[in-house]
Amino acid sequence: MICPPFEPSISTMPDSRPLPRIGAHALPNRVILAPMAGVTDRPFRALCRRLGAGLVVGEMVTSDPNLWHTRKSRLRMDHRGEPGPRAVQIAGGDAEMLAEAARLNAEMGAEIIDINMGCPAKKVCNKAAGSALLRDEALVAEILESVVAAVDVPVTLKIRTGWCADSNNGVRVAKLAEDAGIQALAVHGRHRQQRYGGEAEYDTIAAIKAAVSLPIFANGDVDSPEKARHVLDYTGADAVMVGRGAQGNPWIFREIDHYLRHGQRLAAPDDAERAAVLHGHLVALHDFYGEHMGVRIARKHLGWYLAGDVRLDDDGRRALRATFNGLDSAAAQCRFIDELFRHDPVTAPHRVARAMTPDGTCAA
Ligand SMILES: Cc1cc2nc3c(=O)[nH]c(=O)nc-3n(C[C@H](O)[C@H](O)[C@H](O)COP(=O)(O)O)c2cc1C
Questions:
Q1: How far does the centroid of ligand 1 lie from the alpha carbon of residue 78, in Å?
Q2: Residue 363 lies in a domain
Q3: Is the model's pTM score more than 0.85?
Q4: Taking a C-beta distance cutoff of 8 angstroms, is the pair 309, 317 a contact?
Q5: Does residue 70 sit in the same domain as residue 216?
Q6: With the C-alpha atoms ordered 325, 328, 330, 335, is the resulting torsion angle positive or negative?
Q7: Which residues, at least 6 apart from 360, have a Cβ–Cβ distance to it below 8 Å?
């Protein structure tokens, strides 16, 4: 079966199938925020949830508790104030250690444990974790059974289609998952050796959906409501999982949800809403990470927001990024947002640069 090229002219009939469940947790819709290390921190999860994500998954956490005292792990494991269900993703290659990590995270409040078998990163794969595990189906089964046995909360799994083009063993792994008691399976439509290159394929996801009765979450290159609808129709999956499509565009969740329910596009956010969301996101980053680190992390998010701002041309985006990256304080970054939306997009890059100084005081 060859996946036809994506064409936006697809069915606009509302999706009337029952919404997916993960154990006792009924999802409110079919749109899930994918786990992304360095992106899906608590501020971003909160924002995506507020803008319509039916479920959000945190950044992967190492299964080695000896590393949990580090600042990085502590921040990744911080779910304070988050509404449920809290989905915590663990990564590692040792069944016993993963089971213990799952148990400890459940004790700390995780309501869903997600196991990472999708990450292609060297740091993870050198330790035979992430997607490297897909090569060893016996180890996959051992890990899944150990983790499911260790906790009372539902356990989910995230995989790629396989290790390489010749070994797309996603269907076999999905069956192992079902047999082990995994409650939902997210599948990224690329094998490990593709990393993030090329286009995601949905045939393997469709084959997995047909082979098991678990809820299946289709992942890979879903970046619009129409694409979400196409992927759900093509694969029969129960939900889409959106990663990079949400960077700088957290509105995508409500837009996809609306399109799936009504078959029509929701209006894009207006400038007032965009300004409020950007402002709120920056403030949340400054609060969560502290000013020094928050200001740095805000730079990449602002870059993504600018990349998706259709009011600007490439030169304008570049100039605005350069201005923003030169700002050193939380106050300056917040003022930048005020200035950005105060001006006409054609003149904004020049005017914002003139108005800003690195510490946020008024230059003019
Ligand atoms: C910056 C970044 C970090 C990621 N971190 C994780 C992670 O921690 N755990 C995981 O399972 N997948 C991770 N992924 C993979 C995504 O969850 C997702 O499978 C992949 O990006 C494909 O979906 P997309 O095309 O919607 O982005 C990451 C991807 C990116 C781009």
A1: 19
A2: no
A3: yes
A4: yes
A5: yes
A6: negative
A7: 327, 329, 330, 331, 332, 333, 334, 335
